[in-house]
Every structure is written in structure tokens, then in C-alpha cells.
Amino acid sequence: MSIPTNIPTDVDVLIVGGGPAGALLGCLLARRGIHVLVVEKQQNLDRDFRGETLAAPSVVTLRRLGFGPALENHGYLETTAVSMRMEGQEVLNVDYGRFGIGALPIDIPQPGLIGLFNDAAAGEPGYAYAAGTSCTGLVEKDGAITGARLRDRDGNRVTVTARLVVGADGRFSKVRKEAGLAAEITPQQRDFLSFKLPRPAGWGQHAELVVNRDKHLVVLPTWPDFLRVGHNLPKRGLGELRRRGIEAFRAGITEIDPRLGPLVEEHVRTWDDTGFLEIFTAEMADWARDGLILIGDASHTCTPILGQGVNLAIQDVVMISPVIAAALRAGTGPVPATTFDGFVAARRRHKRRVTRFQRMQEAALAQHKPAKVWVRRVRFKTMNRLPLKYVVFGKVINAPHPIDPADLRTGAEAAPTPAAPSAA
Fold it and tell me: Which of 70, 116, 259, 356 has the fewest CB atoms within 10 Å, i.e. the most exposed one?
């Protein structure tokens, strides 16, 4: 087997995982003149993703980083509000325009988002990207991580030396496992099945949570003209659901939200039209070793509630980019784990707050006894009448994270741009 010719064998930073976190970090580091290699095991980013909503603070952050024109050129769908209906009654409505951030959440396909990060980085000297390439193991010397072993889609192997390896390879992180960093996995009570439907004309641009006792649907308007629907099912309940048949599944969706009945009947024909997601959280005592740091879902896995994964990843990158740059300037060997103590402490606090909120929401949605269902409905109706709902949601959404001046793009490139025409 030959050595892949497109992969440099000695870099400053090796990023394993080319999702939103890895792609954005690779771009920001390359802008600073750092030699960086991003490896992504998928050859083409053409698979379906579940989390494609960028919260308003993330939109502001990306515009300040200079990605506003690229977002406009690609196109996206703004989400104006989120509402909740329980047992046929609207119990909560949150208007995103009330947060005063200067942007609304947007839906943009993750392949498009990752693509614009990669395109921006491609022109930077010292940047390299290797698609269809997997990390098969880490290289260690004197207790520090000094690189990784890689394999491309043709089976060719190469060892890459790096002063820092960044694990940005998601909830089932290979880097995390190879580094021996243990994760505390907490399964949630339920898992998730999702599917897409054409979005009817006049549907609107607000996200909806439709609840009937312990069953619920998340209905999200999706760019350019779809609805993304997520449906909960009992933990390890996929087999039983399939045994009952696709017709029973469609009937169950219609029972929760009759508006979707005709669409589901026409467009969800087989199980291949659905996607399964196992729901768990993963928390870690240590995110770093000498020469290695984990970010995004690799460092702290959240549940899909409120679609926080991609937004937490962007916050991780914006905060860690200047930390990495300073560490590389300060020394010559593997970046010490202690370099990231402040980053880990700050991000852990925020992620734990998000996880606590998600677990509270999951516990509320899992109620099925009539008395508890009634109390739940009253509680949400009461919160809906109070300004408190904006305080609660604001703590989870969070403000745009401060950006290091070296990452900013000034002038017209970074100026807030008008919203793209919506695909209503």
C-alpha cells in the first residue's frame, strides 16, 4: 500500500472529524497561519443530518467571522418562533424576535454549512483537508499524544505528527476512545425517529412541539421547502415499532398531529424513509491530555432537545481557537493539557446547564399519568403568561460568545446582512 500523497505528514494541528466543529476550527486556525490538517471519514457530505438549526447567537457569530455573504449565497430558512401544543391546546409560544440578538435562528443543511467553512479555508496556505480518511489510532511518546495513524478509503496508511490532535469526531468519538478518556454514558428514557416531508404552502416558519401524553412530535420548517419531523419512541423500542409495521407508525403520527396524516401517508412509504437516533448524554472528567483536546459532541454529548449540538460546537471553536494559537506560539512540543483548563471549565459549566435543562424537558415530556399530564399542561400555560419563559430560554440559547480579534473579519464582509428570502 502507498502513502496518500494529499496528506501532509507533519502539521501543527491535526483535527479528526470534519463536521461543523472540525471544519470551522480548521478554517479559523488556517486563517492564523497555522498548519492544520482536517480529516473526515466520509468521502462526501451527502448524507442526511438531523440537527441543522443554527440558534440566533450562532448566526451572529458566523456573520462576525465573515461568513455572512456565504450564508446568503447558499440560502437558509429563518425560524420565527417555537410553540408547544399539548393534548390539542397551545400551552407555550416563544417569539424569537423578543431576544433582541439581531438575528433569528436559521435552518441550513449541514453539508452546505460545512462546505462554506471548507471553501473559506481552502485558499489558506498550510491548510489541508482529507476526505474519506479515518483515524485508526493515536501516536504517543512519553505520555503525550504526538500524532495519529490514518487510513484513506483505498486502505493506504500514513502516520501524521502533530503538536496537537483535536478530537472533533462526534458522539461516538474514536479519538476519545483511543486516548483512554472515559465517558459517563447516561441513556435517556426514549430514542428518536425522524423523517422529512414536503412543507405545505402557508405552513409558516415556526418550530412546533406537539405533545399527546407521553408521545410527541418535533416539527421543524427546513430549508428550502421541507418539514423535519422527529418522533419519540421507548428506549430499545425500534424493533417492536417495526414489527407493528409502517402503517401503524403512520397512524401513530396522524393521531398525534392530524395535519401530517396525508403527508405521512404519501411520503413515508418504508422504514428507509426514516432515520433512527439513539438518545444519551456523555459527560467526561477529562477532555484533554498532553497533545490532545476534545471538542463538540466528543467532549460532552447532549440530547437533541432544542437542537443544541451544532451551536455548542460553534461556541467551543470560537473559544478554543485563540487558546490553541497562543499555545503553539509559546512552545515547541506537544501542547500541554493544562493549556485548556480555563476552556474546559467554562464550556463544562455551560454544557452542564444545557444538559440539566434538556433532562428536565425530557422528564416532562415522558409523563403519561392523567394527573401529571394535567399538571404539566397547567405549568406550561402558566409560564407562557409570564416573561419568565424568555429568561428560561435565554439561559439555554446564550448570548453570542466573545470573538478573539484575530478571528474577526472587518468591514462589509462581516457586517450583518439582510435575511435571505424565505422559502415559505
Answer: 356
What is the C-alpha separation between 45 and 110, in angstroms, rounded?
8
- Residue 417 carries which side chain, given as an amino acid letter? T
Residue 74 CA to residue 423 CA, distance in Å, equals 13
CB 253 within 8 A of CB 261: yes
- Domain 1-48+109-187+283-362 in CATH 3.50.50.60? The answer is yes
Angle between helices 309-330 and 56-64 (to 10 degrees): 40
Percentage of residues in the chain with pLDDT exceeding 90?
Answer: 69
DSSP character string of 145-204: EEEEEEEETTS-EEEEEEEEEEE---TT-HHHHHTT--EEEEE-SEEEEEEEEEPPTT--
Residue with cell 470551522: 24
Query: Which range among 81-95, 157-171, 259-273, 297-311 shows the weakest confidence by mean pLDDT?
Result: 297-311
Tell me the helix, strand and coil percentages in the chain, rounded to 5.
40, 30, 35
Q: Cα–Cα distances in Å, from 274 out to 108, 190, 245, 253, 375?
A: 20, 16, 13, 13, 33
Cell readout for 65 is 467571522
Strand, coil or helix: what is 78? strand
Q: What is the pLDDT of residues 294-328, one digit of tens each?
A: 999 999 887 766 567 788 899 999 999 999 999 99
User: What is the domain class of 189-277 according to CATH?
Assistant: alpha beta
**Nine-digit cell string for 96:** 424569537
Q: Where exactly are the structural domains of the chain?
A: 1-48+109-187+283-362, 189-277
- Residue 418 phi, psi dihedral angles, 5° rounding: -60, 150
Specify the range with the lowest mean pLDDT, choosing from 24-38, 219-233, 302-316, 369-383.
302-316
Q: Is the pLDDT reported for residue 355 higher than 90? A: no
Q: What is the pTM of this model?
A: 0.91
